[in-house]
């Protein structure tokens, strides 16, 4: 701790002792830290400044009281010389004078002149006007706050009702959520299964020699050619079957069979050429 901090701590301790002794109490035990000493030093400075201001005000009041007492003694002496002492006045006059003095003290005026009362009454009228204006503003703010409060209460009621509805919907939503979670698990398992099957099918296609060139369009085109060839070969097959119903003539039958075999071979060769040309065009 530096020298300045030690000096400040000593001043704070001395001030605390004087303050608590003036109140008839002892200083409580606590730890003097730099932070607490700084805070107490600030309080000590404020307290000393306020004490000094209070002393100045008290001295001024004492001076004024002394002046008022001397002036009152002088006025009493004058009134006694004129035969207007308080003891010689009627009780109603004394009462009126006391009421007048009390009103002057209440209005915080130095004398009981009519002009002083008029100025004080004007000041009171101005203060009354200010108070009425402030009261009007406060009433306006109160009405506005009351309106806001009503709206807030209505909003709170609506929110409570909404909260109750949501709480009632929690159980069905939880059940639906659990159902969705179960369905998601099933779908995830199906997805893994389908992916595995897809991989298996790809491997099967790879093993079977599938290539991207053997596409659906090419297969459809080859099927159409096959149908056309079947239409062309069907009459030939029908003719062959009709020959089977003829009486056996070995020579003619052999010629006919050879002719049909040749036509059938030509048709097969044509089909094979078409297929080869289709594959070649796709490549």
TrEMBL record:
Protein's UniProt keywords contain Cell cycle: yes
BP GO terms, sorted: cell division; spindle assembly
UniProt keyword Cytoplasm, yes or no: yes
Main location: cytoplasm
One Pfam family recorded for the sequence: HAUS1
GO CC field: cytosol; HAUS complex; microtubule; spindle
Keywords: Cell cycle, Cell division, Coiled coil, Cytoplasm, Cytoskeleton, Microtubule, Mitosis
Subcellular location: Cytoplasm, Cytoskeleton, Spindle
Superkingdom field: Eukaryota
Sequence similarity: Belongs to the HAUS1 family.
PANTHER family: HAUS AUGMIN-LIKE COMPLEX SUBUNIT 1
Entry protein name: HAUS augmin-like complex subunit 1
Protein species of origin: Glycine max
